[in-house]
Write a structure and sequence with these properties.
The chain is mostly helical. It contains ten helices and three strands. Helix 2 crosses helix 9, helix 3 packs antiparallel against helix 5 and helix 8 runs antiparallel to helix 9. It starts with 8 loop residues before the first strand and ends with a helix.
């Protein structure tokens, strides 16, 4: 997004111009953001403090919660500020930073979800070797691979994006700095970068989805061979939270790839963005805690400890 002209800022048009609707949106996003941060921060604290939550699954969950906080914090607070102050302007550098961090945390989530599915595959298909295969060193390397792969994929289009020119319009039809609306207002030839963005998006989607699907194909095949229904139910329950989160994440992204009419395209894009930036990060802590006995027990122990400390 190189600035050849006097352009020093953009205007984020947001979701609506209706003042009353903006108040409702502000309240909704504020509540979901606070719940997202509180819920995911609680999971991070639990996995750090509780000795029973030291396996690979909870290490990945801890990193996933960190990504959820980071991702929603890259988008929502700036929009809340815009609604509360009615200042829709965002500086060129701030927009570039928001674009970078939004894609960094968002793409890393896909690779982490794929890694978590591999963890579930090892836990169910190779239970006797689970602690050996998924040791702490391997887990740290897998997390590092998620970050490195993400950076390698997002850097080329972002670097090309910094070379774009903006001439007539600086109004971005979105509530965050997103690639599609930014490309629409550029007066440069954006064909190559648009193709690169599509190629990178498809690459990320297909790579991670294949890993998830293959992992769960082997998991289902293994579970169906278990002799008792109780064993099968227990095995499925260990994967249920991850399956729900994967379904929400990939399901919301499918709408982006559906080709709507030009009139509805940006409205759908904004709707999916609200889902991914505010609702999903809020739901994920509840999904993992309500369906996991160990996390619920760790939470109860933490509450009891806080109550005892407050009495003393």
């Amino acid at each position: 997004m190189r600035n050849h002209t006097s352009l020093t800022s953009f205007i984020l048009l947001g979701l609506t111009d209706d003042a009353q609707l903006q108040i409702l949106i502000f309240i909704f996003l504020l509540i979901t953001y606070m719940l997202s941060v509180t819920g995911n921060l609680t999971i991070i604290i639990l996995t750090l403090m509780d000795s029973h939550l030291k396996t690979a699954m909870y290490f990945f969950l801890q990193n996933f919660s960190f990504l959820e906080i980071s991702f929603t914090s890259a988008c929502v607070p700036r929009f809340l500020y815009s609604i509360s102050t009615r200042d829709r302007t965002i500086t060129y550098n701030a927009c570039a930073c928001q674009l970078f961090f939004t894609y960094l945390f968002g793409v890393a989530e896909f690779f982490l979800l794929a890694t978590m599915s591999y963890d579930r595959y090892v836990a169910i298909c190779k239970p006797l070797h689970y602690l050996t295969i998924m040791n702490h060193r391997v887990c740290k390397r897998l997390i590092s691979c998620c970050w490195i792969t993400t950076l390698l994929i997002i850097f080329p289009p972002l670097i090309l994006g910094l070379e774009l020119d903006f001439c007539d319009s600086n109004a971005i039809d979105h509530f965050v700095c997103d690639a599609n609306p930014i490309l629409k207002i550029s007066c440069s030839d954006t064909w190559f970068i648009e193709q690169m963005v599509i190629a990178c998006s498809v690459l990320i989607f297909i790579m991670t989805l294949m890993c998830v699907v293959l992992s769960y194909m082997y998991i289902i095949r293994t579970i169906l061979r278990f002799p008792s229904a109780q064993q099968r139910t227990k095995a499925f329950s260990t994967c249920s939270s991850h399956i729900i989160v994967v379904s929400i994440t990939y399901g919301s992204c499918i709408f982006v790839y559906i080709k709507p009419s030009a009139k509805d395209e940006m409205a759908i894009n904004k709707g999916v963005s609200i889902l991914t930036t505010s609702i999903s990060p809020m739901l994920n802590p509840f999904i993992y805690t309500l369906r996991n006995k160990q996390v619920k027990q760790a939470f109860n122990d933490l509450v009891k400890r806080i109550i005892l400390l407050s009495k003393n």
